[in-house]
Amino acid sequence: MRKSIPLFIGLSFAAASAFAGGPELMAPPAAPQVVIPYLDLEAGWAWRNIRNDGFFFGEQDHHPHANGDDHHGDHDNDHNHRNNFGARGEAGIRFVVTPAFDVTTGVGIGYYGRTNFNNNRHDSFEFDHDDNKRERFRFDSNSNFQQRVTVWGCDFTVGGIYKIVDNFSIFAKVGGLVENANYRFDFDNNSFIERSRDKHRVWEGSSRDVDVTIERTNVLPIVQAGLMYDINPWLGIKATYMHAFNGKNNGFNFNGSREHPEFNVRLANPSLDTVMAGLEFRYAT
Fold first, then answer.
1. CA distance 214 to 210
2. Rounded distance, CA 186 to CA 148, Å?
3. What distance in Å separates the CA atoms of residue 21 and residue 216, rounded to the nearest whole number?
4. Which residue spans within the chain are E strands per DSSP?
5. Any idea which fold 33-282 has?
6. Which residue ranges make up each domain of the chain?
7. What is the pTM of this model?
């Protein structure tokens, strides 16, 4: 009996110490995190491949009694300006498959820049009033055509992330981009007819302004690939290349006269190439 008392006291003290001072000895090991929400913010360069079949102005409507036309020249002056700034945000989930490989899915929204086309055209020619050539006149016309294209869109992607070495990973994704292309067209023209001998204007056409905005929305297949460096489990730096596929061209056909312009436009959503860099924020425990 006396020997069992010290043994009982020793076992009681060990049990009390385990519960009071060492809970980690009793709790089961924590399960690894398998679902990691994330948020990406990126900015960089975006190139819009706006391919035009070209546009042309139709034949002139000459003066009703015009004969012996003498063209002094047709002059075109084209100016293109591209704003290639782009930005994109994405929210999604990473599913941990192995310590080195994750499956990822996300939804993003991006702005992919603006392109401006400007075409200025000047036409001038002289003609006779009748067959006797008793009076000579000059027709003069100035036309200006402007096109502005602004592109943005929402996308859905799925893919994988593979850790190649500590803190460095590569990733690839595929998906679809709901691309919105906003086309705005401005066209104006000023024309007049004057007597060649005294520059007296016998006719002057009022400027005809056309201001049209057209939206084109289409779903384009996309691919993404890039590199990521993990600063810590909650923050990473990434660089991404994206391409959106579309093989259709734009077309512009201008017909009629300078005084009565008519045009038909065939529009397509442009393909895209973007290179962006940014941060990935993760909710990792």
1. 13
2. 9
3. 68
4. 35-49, 67-83, 85-98, 101-128, 136-165, 168-195, 201-205, 210-232, 235-244, 251-256, 261-266, 271-282
5. Porin (2.40.160)
6. 33-282
7. 0.70
What is the rounded (10 degree) CA torsion for 42, 44, 50, 56?
A: 140
| pLDDT tens track for 212-269 | 788 889 999 999 999 999 999 999 999 999 999 986 666 555 555 555 555 566 677 8
For 90, the token pair is 């994405």
Rounding to the nearest 10 degrees, give the CA dihedral for residues 282, 89, 163, 28.
20
Strand partners, 52: 250
With the CA atoms of 127, 130, 134 and 137 taken in that order, what torsion angle do they form, in degrees rounded to the nearest 10?
Answer: -30
CA-nearest of 260, 265, 264, 266 to 143 is 260
Report the run of H or E that residue 19 belongs to, with start and end.
Answer: helix 4-21
Q: Which of 278, 238, 277, 234 is nearest to 36 (CA)?
A: 234
pLDDT digits (tens, 9 = 90+) for 88-136: 999 999 999 999 999 999 999 999 999 887 777 777 777 766 655 667 7
Residues, the chain: 285
Phi, psi (rounded to 5 degrees) for 116: -115, 130
> Can you read off the two tokens belonging to residue 124?
């001038």
SS3 141: strand
